């Protein structure tokens, strides 16, 4: 590809296409081999099921023979019930056997029926005290049982051989697939590596230089010199884009440094979303700076105000008390529902017997300003309540200017 006048994109497409074609061919071949292996595995599974069925049938017949023999000796109803139950199981198993071994079932099933009938008849003979006939029937039944067990034993051995052979075939198929997969991996890896090395030699130096500088930027060293651009191919375009990105990041760093040092009036060459984001952030910082000044003024005014000031939020939870309020409240702390130091965070409802009335008034800023007097122990408090609003006109909560007016009220009552 070195002699071809192709762009890097076309070269990469051709290389990838060849590798993908190689992989597709390899995967198709492996897929076919897996299909064959699946058939072998299915045969093994069928053989395992057959082995399990034969083993179960052999075990069931052994139990049938045991109970029939016990019946012939003991004449117990329990032995007869158990024998018939095992015979019923065996008949169900013969139904499944017919699917795989119909000839065997046709040969064994009559013998099982004959065995059962002879043993049952022997019981009747013993009951009738005809021991000679009973012994003869038991002997014939024993012969039938031996014949049945021999047939089942032969089948069991045959099935075990089939299972073993199927297992060997599965192992061989797996080994073949493993060898094939390993060979294809080695071939594909070697060929891919050779083509990749051949393809990358013409561009590795420029890419490495670009990658090194990008690594330095990733580690935080963004003050990098521009890369030299000598071509207009994709790598050349990449280096141009890198230079632009580096310039932009350095511009961002300068602006971030200015913002950190409080120089918010500088101009920069940023564009697009970055310019909008930094512009918004700068304006927010300017607005916050102005807001902080105003808040500091308000805070100083509140802290140094000789009047008693209490602020609650729109949920009627006390959020602030100026020092004068704290000092005055301590003089009547014994009459308060909570300690002075615990008032912040409490609802103003603790100061009212019927808080619903106050909530209705204070919940709507249109009801403010509002004046009222409340009784706290023997003391009378005068309240002047105003609406505390933010710069956008949103209601933040009530601001209470209050004072203890007990003596003034008494004086006024005396004057009347």
Characteristics:
416 residues, flat, 69% helix, 5 strands, alpha+beta, single chain
Overall shape: it is flat
> How many helical stretches?
10
Determine the fraction of residues in helical runs and give it as a percent range. Answer: 55-70%
Distance between the termini: 113 Å
Strand order of the largest sheet: 2-1-5-4-3
Radius of gyration: 50 Å
Structural class: alpha+beta
Strand content: 5-15%
Low-confidence stretches: none
Task: Give helix and strand order, one letter per element, not per position.
Answer: HHHHHHHEEHHEEEH
Please describe the biggest sheet, giving its number of strands, its sense, and whether it closes into a barrel: 5 strands, antiparallel
Number of strands: 5
Mean pLDDT, as a whole number? 76
Task: Give the helix/strand layout.
Elements: H1 8-74, H2 77-100, H3 102-127, H4 131-200, H5 204-218, H6 234-260, H7 272-304, E1 308-312, E2 318-321, H8 323-331, H9 355-362, E3 370-376, E4 379-389, E5 395-404, H10 406-415
Helix pairs in contact: 1-2, 1-3, 1-4, 2-3, 3-4, 5-6
């Amino acid at each position: 590809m070195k002699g071809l006048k192709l762009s890097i994109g076309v070269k990469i497409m051709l290389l990838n296409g060849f590798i993908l074609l190689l992989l597709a061919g390899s995967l198709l071949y492996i897929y076919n081999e897996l299909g064959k292996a699946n058939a072998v595995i299915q045969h093994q599974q069928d053989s395992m099921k057959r082995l399990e069925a034969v083993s179960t049938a052999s075990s069931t017949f052994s139990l049938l023979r045991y109970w029939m023999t016990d019946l012939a000796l003991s004449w117990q109803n329990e032995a007869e019930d158990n024998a018939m139950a095992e015979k019923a199981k065996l008949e169900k198993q013969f139904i499944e056997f017919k699917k795989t071994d119909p000839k065997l079932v046709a040969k064994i099933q009559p013998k099982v029926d004959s065995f059962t009938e002879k043993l049952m008849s022997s019981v009747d003979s013993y009951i009738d005290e005809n021991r000679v006939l009973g012994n003869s029937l038991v002997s014939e039944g024993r012969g039938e049982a031996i014949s049945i067990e021999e047939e089942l034993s032969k089948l069991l051995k045959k099935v075990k051989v089939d299972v073993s052979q199927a297992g060997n075939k599965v192992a061989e198929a797996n080994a073949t697939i493993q060898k094939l997969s390993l060979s294809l991996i080695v071939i594909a890896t070697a060929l891919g590596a050779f083509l990749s090395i051949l393809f990358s030699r013409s561009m590795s130096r420029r890419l490495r230089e670009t990658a090194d500088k990008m690594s330095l930027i990733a580690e935080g060293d963004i003050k990098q010199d521009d890369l030299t651009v000598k071509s207009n191919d994709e790598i050349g375009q990449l280096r141009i884009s890198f230079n632009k990105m580096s310039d932009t990041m350095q511009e961002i760093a300068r602006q971030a440094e200015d913002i950190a040092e409080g120089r918010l009036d500088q101009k920069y060459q940023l564009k697009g979303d970055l310019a909008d984001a930094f512009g918004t952030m700068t304006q927010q910082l300017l607005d916050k700076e102005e807001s902080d000044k105003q808040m500091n003024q308000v805070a100083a005014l509140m802290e140094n105000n000789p009047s008693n000031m209490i602020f609650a939020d729109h949920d009627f939870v006390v959020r602030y008390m100026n020092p004068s309020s704290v000092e005055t409240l301590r003089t009547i702390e014994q009459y308060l529902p909570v300690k002075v130091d615990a008032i912040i965070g409490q609802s103003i409802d603790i100061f009212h017997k019927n808080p619903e009335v106050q909530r209705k008034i204070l919940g709507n800023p249109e009801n403010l300003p509002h004046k009222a007097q409340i009784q706290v122990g023997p003391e009378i408090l005068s309240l002047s309540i105003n609406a505390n609003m933010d710069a956008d006109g949103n209601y933040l909560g009530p601001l209470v200017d209050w004072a203890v007016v007990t003596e003034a009220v008494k004086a006024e009552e005396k004057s009347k």
